[in-house]
């Protein structure tokens, strides 16, 4: 599986990040994520952590709350990859690129992952490999390769003002930023 962002390279937690405050200490990354989300008409919504943040974010996108994340785990992991599935289905285990693809496949989703890291493509699209009619599109954010968040629609007029003010801030402080990977759309 080849993805354009960084999710395929994230091996999981080195430390236990059980709270958002630990996982989102980089204000610049959070600011960049907000800017990128607003470009897509979205705001971020933290739905919790403890290693289940990807599944909680997808649950919120699909069901309107994050409480269905364990059901989502069961639906995705109902296959024959026994040991891998056994390890990955444990609460608190980070989602890797294989799991993200499995979620897209099992639920017929187009998962748009918007990155906070300026060194990665602004958005990674993970689609079901056998896309059927009318796939459901969801948008989640990825903060500093440590935490996934859900999103909700932004208000149009205030969002435009926020995007313009954030663009000014980013342009003024971006002169020393060198990127390894970037798309043409990335700030």
Question: Would you write up a description of this structure?
Answer:
The protein has a 5-stranded mixed beta sheet, sandwiched between helices. It has 7 helices and 5 strands. Helices cover 39% and strands 17% of the residues. The chain has 187 residues and is of the alpha+beta class. It is globular, with a radius of gyration of 16 Å. α2 packs across α7 (156-173) and α3 (53-63) packs across α4 (69-76). The model is unreliable at 1-5, 8-25 and 173-187 (pLDDT under 50). It holds the Pfam family OTU. Residues 166-187 are annotated as: Disordered.
Helix/sheet category: alpha+beta
Mean pLDDT comes to 73
Distance between the termini: 26 Å
Instruction: Give the strand line-up of the largest sheet.
Output: 1-5-4-2-3
Protein name: OTU domain-containing protein
GO biological process, one term: protein deubiquitination
GO molecular function: cysteine-type deubiquitinase activity
Pfam families: OTU
Write a compact overview of the structure shown:
The chain has 187 residues and is of the alpha+beta class. The chain has helices at 20-23, 27-39, 53-63, 69-76, 82-88, 97-107, 156-173; strands spanning 42-45, 109-115, 123-127, 136-143, 147-153.
């Amino acid at each position: 599986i080849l993805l354009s962002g960084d999710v395929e390279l994230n091996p999981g937690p080195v430390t236990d990040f059980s709270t958002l405050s630990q996982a989102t200490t980089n204000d610049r990354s959070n600011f960049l994520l907000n800017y990128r989300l607003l470009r897509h008409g979205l705001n971020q919504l933290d739905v919790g952590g403890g290693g289940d943040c990807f599944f909680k974010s997808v649950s919120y996108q699909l069901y309107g709350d994050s409480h269905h994340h364990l059901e989502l785990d069961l639906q995705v992991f109902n296959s024959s990859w026994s040991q891998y599935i056994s390890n990955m289905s444990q609460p608190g285990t980070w989602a890797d690129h294989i799991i993200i693809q499995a979620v897209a496949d099992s639920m017929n989703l187009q998962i748009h992952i918007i990155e906070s890291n300026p060194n990665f493509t602004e958005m990674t699209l993970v689609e079901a490999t056998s896309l059927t009619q009318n796939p459901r599109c969801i948008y989640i954010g990825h903060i500093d390769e440590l935490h996934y968040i859900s999103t909700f629609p932004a208000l149009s007029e205030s969002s435009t003002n926020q995007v313009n003010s954030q663009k000014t801030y980013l342009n003024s402080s971006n002169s020393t930023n060198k990127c390894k990977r970037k798309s043409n759309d990335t700030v």
